[in-house]
């Protein structure tokens, strides 16, 4: 009988359950996808790109797990807020506490298990399509990427079901401890937080100081090394909490005394916020951090990738080097916007490549001058022959010009024209080409590089990259991988933070349902109510959003050493921010839509 | 009758969505309330009292008939007009108080004025005046959670009359109160009615509450079954008369 009643209760709130289930399913799916990437040994081993980023993956997985815990906590409180009235009613009607307790436990667990199973299935599907798609877009071809990986499935299942068992136990305890009266009227109790100005002032100052330490730690990552990250994480979390705790409430209190507060629904809005922000401080802190991490991950990831062309021209002495160019290759060369071109004759005797000094004197080999000035356009210089013999000719850029691509080689030698003529060996010519801007000639360079690799393949132990074009391609792969992780984590964080916020806000719906019904009765226009709700929820979204943006702006300092000039973690962040904020706003609108649906009284009493 | 604040003609209300069995709660109701009158509406539980009050206060729309409140044809109003009508023309006291727990008593009382955009100083004056009338001046800074039922209902009454509505309506306002608080509230309603000449329409199933009214209408089977006038009787006598009426009424 009680089971039947409980099922009827669930049925009545189909929509809320759907929201909850959808959120949990999505979270499990995201977690599975990430776990699959992070734990799949075959995949990690097979891809150098991933290997180098494995720390990032590991760090991401830990963060994701932590956030999942928090996420499930909020989802659970949403569930409880929906159900406690029903549970209270059952008990009032004489159901045994124990029996109701079993019901609570089962309900939470069933919901969690369903979400986990569906989530993992969805994750497997998404791994197959979404991850492949993302990688493709970034021009990465990673081998051994399977969508179904048993350890990842188990890992996800154990974590989620484990967390749900905890959540069920928590709900059970809550229920056993709370009186029936409190269960029935939980959403009607107003806890008016006490204000202690001195304490709050101190807390605010302390918060500011902590956040400052966190920001400093991120900027000083070169001195602090890896300790910077946990230090920043702890201080910023605590600091943000204290700042919210101290200021938001004080600001609301201050506003409440103004004349503005006495117009239309403003007073009600402030009352609502006052009533909630305290309760929300912890969540707003977490959300602001999530926001920062999501935005940070995407900004850094895409920043690397986007800024590659900036460094592309400073990667070496020439863009491509072509041996014995044929007609087709010559045709392609003609299409390049060249800054410099030189052709040298090579004779290969045994393991040594010989060059003709006369040729090198006529067209000296141009080398790049390395500088660490920001945004400097790369400069090139030449050396006298004597000097070149000692230094320039021994540089990697020059060495890999041999047709063998470093496979089985000895240092190249430069000999006089007469000696060169006397040498008995296979003769080649090599043409080095440097374009003005690599980014502008990528296509033609690609064709040239491919045909060169086909005609003069590098042996197994040879050099992988010859010329800036190939370096560019390789770095593109690595940074593309970083970008992928950035996007992946960013989207995952964003999705979770938004649904955390959504659950927390939606948990307040039953209480607001009554409040807005009251407002409707005393004659508040519907447009005014809608506007009020939009403002209230908007503020709850805006506070962590603003804090998150500030965190990111400071946090990007951390990547300065990694993205040295002419790259900069701050370059072109405007677009990334705009897209991200756009997504956030969409989440806000969805939440608002759901909320309006939940709490706006119908035009007439009959619905 | 001259200067009717409320005029109801042939009011009909049928509940039930398409596909459900319709239920007619009000079947052609007629009555009016004169300006300054204190009228009670009595009837058994489920007789349609709340339904009637919802029609009067535009919270719900009638299936048929006319409702005119303070010269406005309520049935012809739409959207914002409805909300504005509720905000300006009627004051409402509910059984469950309907106070916003996130606002202080003062803010709750000021809400109808804030909605109208009243200047802050005028608002303060009005709030303090009404608070004095209802002796709740010392409760103004408190939140509803810190008030007793009787105090809450007095705050609700203050909110209902602070903007000088044409009529004050109450749906079983004493329903959730103990007898002392109930009596205090009814005395207050009488005072408001007499001193401010505000029309009061009180819906109740409780004969004691009804005995404070000047005239009582009895609803039965969705219509006004009978009517009692207090005239010059004292309250006790009137109370007895109501009890007698109820006895015959229910047979
Ligand atoms: N929204 C509704 N939908 C269907 N029936 C309703 C609705 N509201 C009230 N009723 C029915 O109309 C009748 C009158 O109800 P109500 O006006 O609340 O009575 P009272 O307030 O006198 O106790 C009852 O039989 C009730 O079941
Ligand atoms: Mg009723």
List the helices and strands and how they pair.
The complex is a heterodimer of chains A (607) and B (251).
Chain A: H1 2-12, H2 14-39, H3 41-46, H4 48-52, H5 54-92, H6 97-137, H7 150-177, H8 180-185, H9 197-219, H10 221-224, H11 228-256, H12 266-312, E1 320-323, H13 327-335, E2 338-349, E3 352-356, H14 357-362, E4 367-369, E5 379-381, H15 385-390, H16 396-399, E6 410-415, H17 417-422, E7 426-435, H18 442-455, H19 467-507, H20 509-521, H21 526-555, H22 573-599
Parallel strand pairs in A: 3-6
Antiparallel strand pairs in A: 1-7, 2-3, 2-7, 4-5
Helix pairs in contact in A: 1-5, 2-5, 2-6, 2-7, 2-19, 5-6, 5-7, 5-19, 6-7, 9-11, 11-12, 12-19, 12-21, 12-22, 13-18, 19-22, 21-22
Chain B: E1 4-15, E2 23-34, E3 38-42, H1 49-56, E4 64-69, E5 72-73, H2 79-88, E6 90-93, H3 105-116, H4 120-133, H5 149-161, E7 167-171, H6 179-195, E8 199-204, H7 207-210, E9 215-220, E10 223-229, H8 235-250
Parallel strand pairs in B: 3-8, 3-9, 6-7, 7-8
Antiparallel strand pairs in B: 1-2, 1-4, 4-5, 9-10
Helix pairs in contact in B: 3-4, 3-5, 5-6
The structure holds adenosine-5'-diphosphate and magnesium ion (MG).
Adenosine-5'-diphosphate (ADP) binds next to strand 2 and helix 1 of chain B.
State the gist of this model:
The complex is a heterodimer of chains A (607) and B (251). Chain A has helices at residues 2-12, 14-39, 41-46, 48-52, 54-92, 97-137, 150-177, 180-185, 197-219, 221-224, 228-256, 266-312, 327-335, 357-362, 385-390, 396-399, 417-422, 442-455, 467-507, 509-521, 526-555, 573-599; strands at residues 320-323, 338-349, 352-356, 367-369, 379-381, 410-415, 426-435.
């Amino acid at each position: 009988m009680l089971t039947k009643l409980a099922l009827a209760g669930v049925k009545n709130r189909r929509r809320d359950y759907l929201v909850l289930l959808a959120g949990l399913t999505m979270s499990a799916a995201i977690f599975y996808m990430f776990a699959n990437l992070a734990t799949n040994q075959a995949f990690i081993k097979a891809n150098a790109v991933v290997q180098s980023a494995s720390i990032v993956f590991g760090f991401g997985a830990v963060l994701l797990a932590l956030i999942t815990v928090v996420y499930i906590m909020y989802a659970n409180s949403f569930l409880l807020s929906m159900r406690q009235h029903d549970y209270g009613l059952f008990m009032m009607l004489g159901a045994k506490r124990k029996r109701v307790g079993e019901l609570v436990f089962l309900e939470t667990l069933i919901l969690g298990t369903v979400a986990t199973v569906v989530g993992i299935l969805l994750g497997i599907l998404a791994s197959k399509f979404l991850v492949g798609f993302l990688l493709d877009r970034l021009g990465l071809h990673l081998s051994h990427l399977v969508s179904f990986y048993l350890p990842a499935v188990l890992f996800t299942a154990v974590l989620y079901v484990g967390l749900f068992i905890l959540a069920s136990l928590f709900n059970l305890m809550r229920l056993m401890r709370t009186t029936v009266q409190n269960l029935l009227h939980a959403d009607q109790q107003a806890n008016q937080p006490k204000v202690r100005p001195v304490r709050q002032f101190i807390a605010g100052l302390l918060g500011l100081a902590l956040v400052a330490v966190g920001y400093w730690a991120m900027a000083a990552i070169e001195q602090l090394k890896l300790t910077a990250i946990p230090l920043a994480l702890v201080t910023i979390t605590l600091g943000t909490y204290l700042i919210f705790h101290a200021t938001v409430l004080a600001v609301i209190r201050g506003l409440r005394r103004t004349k503005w507060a006495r117009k239309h629904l403003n007073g009600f809005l402030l009352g609502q916020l006052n009533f909630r922000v305290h309760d929300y401080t912890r969540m707003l802190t977490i959300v602001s951090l999530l926001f920062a991490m999501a935005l940070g991950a995407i900004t850094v990831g895409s920043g690397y990738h986007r800024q590659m062309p900036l460094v592309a021209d400073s990667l070496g002495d020439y863009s491509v080097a072509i041996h014995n160019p044929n007609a087709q290759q010559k045709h392609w060369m003609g299409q390049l916007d060249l800054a410099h071109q030189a052709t040298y004759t090579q004779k290969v005797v045994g393991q040594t490549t010989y060059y003709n000094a006369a040729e090198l004197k006529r067209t000296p080999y141009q080398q790049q001058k390395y500088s660490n000035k920001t945004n400097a356009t790369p400069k090139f210089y030449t050396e006298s022959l004597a000097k070149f013999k000692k230094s320039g000719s021994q540089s990697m850029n020059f060495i890999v010009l041999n047709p063998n691509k470093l496979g089985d080689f000895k240092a190249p030698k430069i000999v006089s024209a007469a000696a060169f003529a006397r040498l008995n060996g296979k003769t080649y010519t090599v043409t080095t080409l440097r374009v003005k801007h690599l980014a502008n000639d990528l296509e033609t360079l690609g064709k040239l590089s491919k045909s060169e690799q086909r005609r003069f393949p590098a042996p197994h132990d040879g050099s992988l990259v010859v010329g800036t074009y190939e370096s560019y391609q390789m770095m593109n792969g690595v940074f593309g991988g970083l970008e992928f992780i950035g996007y992946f984590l960013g989207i995952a964080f964003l999705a979770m933070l938004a649904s955390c916020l959504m659950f927390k806000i939606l948990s307040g719906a039953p209480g607001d349902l009554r409040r807005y019904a009251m407002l409707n009765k005393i004659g508040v226009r519907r447009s005014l109510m809608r506007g009020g709700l939009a403002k209230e929820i908007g503020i709850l979204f805006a506070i962590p959003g603003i804090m998150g943006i500030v965190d990111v702006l400071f946090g990007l300092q951390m990547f300065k050493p990694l993205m040295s000039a002419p790259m900069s973690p701050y370059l072109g962040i405007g677009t990334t921010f705009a897209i991200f904020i756009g997504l956030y706003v969409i989440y806000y609108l969805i939440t608002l839509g759901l909320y309006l649906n939940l709490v706006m009284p119908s035009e007439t009493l009959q619905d | 009758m001259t200067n009717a604040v409320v005029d109801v003609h042939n009011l009909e209300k049928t509940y039930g969505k398409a596909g459900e069995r319709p239920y007619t709660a009000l079947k052609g109701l007629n009555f009016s309330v004169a300006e300054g009158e204190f009228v009670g509406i009595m009837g058994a539980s489920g007789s349609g009292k709340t339904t009637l009050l919802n029609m009067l206060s535009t919270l719900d729309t009638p299936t048929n008939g006319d409702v005119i409140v303070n010269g406005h044809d309520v049935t012809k109003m739409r959207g914002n007009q409805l909300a504005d009508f509720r905000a300006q023309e009627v004051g409402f006291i509910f059984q469950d108080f309907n106070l916003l727990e996130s606002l202080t008593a003062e803010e709750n009382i000021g809400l109808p004025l804030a909605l109208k955009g009243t200047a802050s100083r005028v608002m303060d004056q009005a709030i303090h005046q009404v608070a004095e009338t209802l002796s709740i001046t010392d409760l103004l800074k408190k939140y509803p959670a810190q008030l007793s039922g009787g105090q809450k209902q007095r705050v609700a009454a203050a909110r209902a009359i602070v903007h000088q509505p044409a009529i004050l309506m109450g749906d079983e306002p004493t329903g959730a109160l103990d007898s002392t608080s109930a009596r205090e509230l009814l005395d207050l309603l009488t005072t408001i009615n007499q001193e401010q000449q505000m029309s009061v329409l009180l819906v109740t199933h409780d004969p004691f509450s009804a005995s404070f009214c000047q005239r009582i209408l009895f609803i039965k089977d969705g219509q006004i079954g009978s009517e009692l006038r207090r005239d010059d009787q004292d309250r006790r006598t009137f109370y007895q008369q109501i009890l007698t009426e109820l006895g015959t009424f229910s047979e």
